[in-house]
Amino acid sequence: MSDTNSWSLSMHQIECCNCSHGCGCQFGGFPDSEDGGCEALLGFSIIQGNFNTLDLSGIKMVFAAVWPKAIHQGNGKGALFIDAAASTEQVTALATIMSGQAGGMPVEAIAGTFTEFEGPIIKNIEMNIDDKRSSFSIEDIVNVAQTPLIDPVTGEDHEVHITFPKGGFMWDEGSIGTSEAMRINHNNLQFEHVGKFSAKAVANWGN
Description:
This protein is mostly beta strands. It contains three helices and 13 strands; from the N terminus they run βαββββααββββββββ. The chain is globular and about 55 Å long.
């Protein structure tokens, strides 16, 4: 934990990865993808946040990452995109937070899993925070859309939640769906997955 900088973020978090709908990482710590690696895209819309006295509310971010094996086994490649509406001071603060330099979980732990990381990259970010049909996009780079899981018998939407009663690593309770779209094309981060794990939650992080 940093003795100098105090921060907290309460955020809408939209996440999707290449795991099946349970997401092995959530429970057993290891991806259940065919190659054993993790490829993930996460969108954040800050409900309320601060870095010391600087207000960070309303800012959007996109986090993209690839790990060749489980996240905790390292050698990851990642990138952080911050919305162009953020001020220079807000960009610096969020880059400091998301890189783990100001301490606090889960960012401090995640930062240590990367051997390559790019950002902050300033782009216009579009985001819809609807619990059932959330989405985010960066033109020509990222496109993510989440839809509900469908009951194969009735054809109706499934309402599914994952809850961590004692607190989860990223969030405590998430609405689970599936990826209608999940694509990134940016330098060494290039992948696309459809019909895989997706979740919408409110994440509360800080140091």
